[in-house]
Here is the input.
Amino acid sequence: MQYKLGIDDRKNSPKPFLKWAGGKRKVVERIVSSLPRDIEESGRIEKYFEPFLGGGAVFFYLISHYDIDEVHLGDINKDLILTYHVVQKDPEILVDLLKSMSDDFLPSSKELRKEYYYNIRNEFNKEHERFNYSKYSDKHIIRASKMIFLNKTCFNGLFRVNKKCQFNVPMGSYKNPLICDKENILNVSKVLQDVVIKSEDYRCSEKFMDENSFVYLDPPFRPLNKTSYFTNYSKNKFDDAEQKQLCEFYKRVSEKHVRVVLSNSDPKNENKNDSFFEDLYGEFRIEKVVVRRYINANAKKRGPINELLIFNY
Here is the structure.
């Protein structure tokens, strides 16, 4: 099936409905400017994979500009994938719930907003241990509404959990957050129809990849220093050992002639002698891209930094 939107639909093209640390909204056009030549010339992708989905900015760009026959999206974060499933299956009910939450939250005083936020956060965390993620039900829609509400109203739109897998981000200070973006949720739902969305480790997608596949890998970034570990999207950190295993995955699928581009941090932002990724991916093409960092408790440390794009073609 092909998903490409017509020219008249571009102004209503879907965009990420969640904020996400490391999101690619600002660099997505730079990433797709280096697509394989046959994709650029034909405007078509046979099989697209994004196994570290997050906010999905690259997927939403591609789905709006290219014909894609088959899409596989995944992430190890169960609540993230649950929310995508709800947007895919029940967008209207989700919108109604978000509208109700928005109507309750926005007119309230700062103190009442704070009470409302932490009540939702506590409910969200209490539900986690006993929640049945595998069997879709109305409870999934309610949980997705809480996920989106917290994402839109928490500090910097950051998804972070502790070792108990409890969401622990404090409330943000937004004056008028867009909690219910009805038009975009409905647009996203349209393009998610027939898309395969799974909560699983990225390695599970390998068996479906072949020479007709294009893959974008956006793993939790390697932290630039000891205090920047904000990439706790699940209870387990994505440490250097995990980065090395991801490199082995990258090399394996490359041997199958799968086209892959990978994003990560540039350690040289902090340490000019840190050649971690050059050592791992030295046989592949590595490019630096200047991006703006928005997530940092210290506003003075937000600003332009380099990120890496690693290509096997």
User: Anything to note?
Assistant: The chain has a mean pLDDT of 90. The longest strand covers residues 67-75. Residues 81-183 form a domain with the Adenine-specific Methyltransferase; domain 2 fold (CATH 1.10.1020.10).
